[in-house]
Design goal:
This protein is mainly beta. It is built from seven helices and 30 strands.
Amino acid sequence: MKKMFVLFTAFCLLAVLLPPLQSSAAAAPPAKLAVYVDKENHSFIPLRFLNGFAGIQSIVATAGGQIRITRDDSSIIFTPGTAGASVNGKTVAAGQRPFSENGTTYVPLSLISQTLGIQLQWNKDAASLSLTSGSETATLPVQNGALIRTGTPAVISGSHTYKVGGRSFTVQMVTVSLLHPSVKLDAVLAGNTVGKTEALASIAKRSNAVAAINGTFFDAYTSAAYKAPYGYIVSGGNMLKDSPADKRTVFAYDGNLLAELIPGSEFRDRFNTGSIQGALQAGPRLLVNGKVSLNVLAEGFKDPKILTGGGARSALGLTLDHKLILLTSGGATIPQLAQIMKQAGAYQAMNLDGGASSGLYYNGKYLTAPGRLISNALVVQTK
């Protein structure tokens, strides 16, 4: 198995070694580490990602801003105001030049990969790129068209109405720009303890969250004080709740908030690579690559509330441009919820706990108020 490269190992060092080509506000959070593809389909990679990956060293000279990228006997030098680049001492046509935006310096990816022998694997359905060199592999989100500008809203909310099979559903929705520099996610336990319950608004407020939605299923109907959550729960790279052999879908994300939906049977192996920072398991899966895809029985569901019934629902979805959709709806069956998420713009989607647990919080108040205390939540924070 290829060794997964942990993206943030060199992150703190880079803040010292790699000052931006242009000054930026000191308080502004750094941009997410993402491959940028411009409108002409030219690809660029953040310079601070390269430093430390597969033995690569990257330095920006304090005088003149010359960029030097080296590994073993190979070197690439970009000099401001000079066309092309120097590769191993010879001038070559680079095609594109480095640039700096929002405090991050980007360099042309094609020249870097060809010179330093980095293999690229593009994943269209996940809007990501895997970079491999030797035994090291890292996967970054891909941002197309335009970089997120300072001042762009990180989180927005709205009420929408979608028509499914002749019936209209009014839903509450929060949309989160996962590549926005200020956005963070966390999976938070009620009372910070497995088995406790707490109001969704309380979890959100003590987490300093701008938005929150209820998370995994749990034993809501026991009279015991301990109300067990069902499924994997991961926070800060730590497994808070294990769930071996559980087949239900897992929402997971890494340190760059590159998020995905993973079958429960595959999650443990993925977690063991060390790349997953947060996760919640619920299901069933609603959408796969933009299409309704339901296999409720295969995920292990037996409850009629999931198989055939309608009711209050919570769901999350991912778009191809790395937005997270948090949505609540009343009275929907699982197939209807899948259609709703598709119309809402999700490309991948899954169900969360529902019924009286269904709740959505935004900007200090409920958009959908849960009918009971809950076991855990997915929270959205902004710096």
